Amino acid sequence: MKKLLLLTALVSVSFVNAQAYKGKGDQKFQIGANLQDEATGINVTYDYGIGENISIGVSSTYALGVDDILDADFGDRFDLKARFNANLGNVLNIDDNFDLYPGLSLSLKNFGGHIGARYFFTDGFGVYTEATFPLAKYDEDKLEPANFIHNQFAINIGASFNL
After folding, report:
1. How does DSSP assign 57-122, residue by residue?
2. Comparison of pLDDT for 16 and 28, the residue scoring more
3. Count of beta carbons in the 10 Å neighbourhood of residue 82
4. Which of 40, 41, 134, 161 could lock onto 65 through a cystine, CB 3.0 to 4.6 A?
5. How far, in Å, CA of 18 to CA of 72, rounded?
6. Residues linked to residue 35 through DSSP beta bridges, in sequence order
7. Count of CB atoms within 10 A of residue 62's CB?
8. What is the pLDDT of residues 100-134, one digit of tens each?
9. Residues with Cβ < 8 Å from 67, sequence gap 6 or more?
10. CA 73 to chain centre
11. Listed residue (113, 43, 118) closest to 88, CA to CA
12. CA distance 130 to 113
């Protein structure tokens, strides 16, 4: 039994040799749940490293579960964002497996910001969480109730993969 525990511990330690952000050329794919008032959905993100601490990417969210009080069609439920991240994991020198990334995004619904964190358990797999928030909404005075789906504070949580 002791040999089995030792072997399990050694194998587990070998998986911890991951790095959350590797710099230029690094590619991340994330998929997770999107949680916000009046709706829940799915979030998909792709980030590409263009510098030691800078990445750009795209993010898309689709609200699957929308409360009945909102009359939301496909256009109300869908959002697409271009994003910019400042990857600060190596700057903060917390852990090679951890990356903290604040950023800005320009979407079909608004101009916004986000702050996220990733932790990689292996070289290819980790978890992430992001908080997103609008900084400027388009035509704020003319928004229908369904347009508020992607124009509010939201949390994304899910799995992150190195490509």
Report:
1. EEEEEEEEEE-TTS---HHHHEEEEEEEEE--HHHHTS-TTEEEEEEEEEESSEEEEEEEEEEESS
2. 28
3. 12
4. 40
5. 41
6. 40, 155
7. 16
8. 999 999 999 899 999 999 999 998 999 999 999 99
9. 38, 39
10. 24
11. 118
12. 10
